[in-house]
Amino acid sequence: MNSAALALAPAVLSSASVRPRCGAAPAPAPAIISSASGRPRLGARSAVRCEVASSSAPPAAATQAAKWAQTTVVLPAQRRGCHLITPQIVNEIKDDLAEFKCGMAHLFLQHTSASLTINEKYDPNVRADTETFLSRTVPEGPSAPWTHTMEGPDDMPAHIKSSMFGSSLTIPITNGRLNMGYWQGIWLCEHRDHATPRQIVITLNGI
C-alpha cells in the first residue's frame, strides 16, 4: 500500500488492543427526568459505562472489582394462582443489592410444579386472568390424557405449566436497584392445589 493510501485508510482498533474493564468505576449516571407520578418520561435515560483498559493492564485489573452474592429465599406456601413477590424478593436482598452499581440478578426456582415470570404489577386482575388462561390451556381431571397422576389430577398439569413459564429470571441491576420497567413485577406462579414452601436461589454479580 502506498503512502497516499495509508493516509486515507481509517484507523482500526485491534480486538486485542482494548477490552472492557468491568471492574473499573463507572462514570456518573445522568439523572432520569421523571414525571410527577414517578414514571420515567419518554426519552429519559440513565447510563452506567465501563471504561476501556489498554492491553498493558494486568489481567487481574479487569475483574478485581467484580462482586458476587448469593442467597436462598424461602417463600411460604401460596394458594394456586399467580402471586406478586417483588416486595419479598427485594426485602431479602436489599443489603447485598445496594453494593452493586451495575450488574445482573439471577433468580432460580428450585421446583417443578411452580414457575417464575415477569408481568404487570398493578392490576391483580392480570394475575387472575393469567391463571384462568393456564387452567383452560392445560386440561385437568379424569378426562385429561396424562399418565403421571401419582400426586393427584393437578400433578402433571403443574409440571407442564412450570415449563411454559420457566424456573429462572435474569434482571439488570442499576445503582443498587432491580432495573425493571415501571409496570413490571416478579410473579411466583403456583400450579398445585396444595402447595409447599418454595425456594428461590438469587445470585447477584456485577460491580
General description of the model:
This protein has 207 residues and is α+β, with helices and mostly antiparallel strands. It contains four helices and ten strands, in the order αββββαββααββββ. A five-stranded antiparallel sheet has the order 3-10-5-7-8, covered by helices on one side. Strands 4-9-6 form a three-stranded antiparallel sheet, with helices on both faces. Strands 1-2 form a two-stranded antiparallel ribbon. The longest helix is centred in the middle third of the chain and has 14 residues.
Give the topology.
Layout lengths: L2 H6 L9 E4 L29 E4 L12 E9 L5 E4 L1 H12 L4 E8 L4 E7 L3 H14 L17 H11 L2 E7 L2 E2 L5 E7 L7 E9 L1
Antiparallel strand pairs: 1-2, 3-10, 4-9, 5-7, 5-10, 6-9, 7-8
Properties at a glance:
disordered N terminus, alpha+beta, 10 strands, five-stranded antiparallel β-sheet, 29% strand, elongated
The gist of it:
The protein is an alpha+beta fold and 207 residues long. Helices cover 21% and strands 29% of the residues. The chain is built from four helices and ten strands.
Structural class: alpha+beta
Radius of gyration: 23 Å
Runs with pLDDT <50, length 5+? Answer: 1-38, 50-55
Helix and strand run: HEEEEHEEHHEEEE
Beta percentage is 25-35%
* Biggest sheet overview: 5 strands, antiparallel
Oligomer: single chain
Strand ordering within the main sheet:
3-10-5-7-8
Distance between the termini: 45 Å
Query: What is the number of helical segments per DSSP (H or I, 4+ residues)?
Result: 4
Total strands: the figure is: 10
Shape, principal axes of CA atoms: elongated
Helix fraction, binned, reads: 10-25%
The mean pLDDT is 81
Pfam families: YjbQ
InterPro entries: UPF0047_YjbQ-like, YjbQ-like_sf
Protein name: Secondary thiamine-phosphate synthase enzyme
